[in-house]
Amino acid sequence: xxxxxxxxxxxxxxxxxxxxxxxxxxxxxxxxxxxxxxxxxxxxxxxxxxxxxxxxxxxxxxxxxxxxxxxxxxxxxxxxxxxxxxxxxxxxxxxxxxxxxxxxxxxxxxxxxxxxxxxxxxxxxxxxxxxxxxxxxxxxxxxxxxxxxxxxxxxxxxxxxxxxxxxxxxxxxxxxxxxxxxxxxxxxxxxxxxxxxxxxxxxxxxxxxxxxxxxxxxxxxxxxxxxxxxxxxxxxxxxxxxxxxxxxxxxxxxxxxxxxxxxx
Length: 264
What we know:
Elements: E1 9-14, H1 18-30, E2 34-38, E3 51-55, H2 59-72, E4 79-83, H3 91-96, H4 100-103, E5 108-111, H5 116-148, E6 153-158, E7 161-165, H6 167-173, H7 177-180, H8 194-205, E8 213-219, E9 222-234, E10 245-252, H9 253-261
Parallel strand pairs: 1-2, 1-3, 3-4, 4-5
Antiparallel strand pairs: 6-7, 6-10, 8-9, 9-10
């Protein structure tokens, strides 16, 4: 069986220096696995691309539009900054000379004149990071579809706030999804039970809290006895800057008691 050619990754070239743009475009056109998109204006940010290369002349003027595109993207969209030769390899100094609001859009730098081997290495690294993010995003989509099939109410929390709710949770809590996303689950329960649930969630984030906690939620003005049971799934970042992702299952007390009565 013949091997399929690798998928070409699209690299957007948004540079004021026409010679650098031409040379990079020609090299990428000849390089297996990459396809150049030469941009003359910020309208090109509306196109589909997997990595962008900008220079220090275009980044300040295009930074806002680039940042807006990155916010719209569901996964990591890398940016490589081409530094002029006069920086002498001091990337940090060159970045400090740029406006603060655009520096955060830069994921890596490379200095002119560009060495092909160094450019290939940086592009491969950035694009590989995007591919990993895409794979993770697809895995999360599959995971969410699986959760939708469960009869139990399920919440996913990030940084302590609700990031995802399945249909069973929407039905149990009797709130529309937009009113749940971003809320803290403590707000769903009776005031006297809020300290107990908050304590349990802290234990979960610290890798404990296996026993669950019984509280009453307030749904459409009525109190419903439930039990929260959770598990910590994984960290968002390898450096541990973000809170762990927590999965919460909410069992109605009637269901729990009914299951218990059926035990021999």
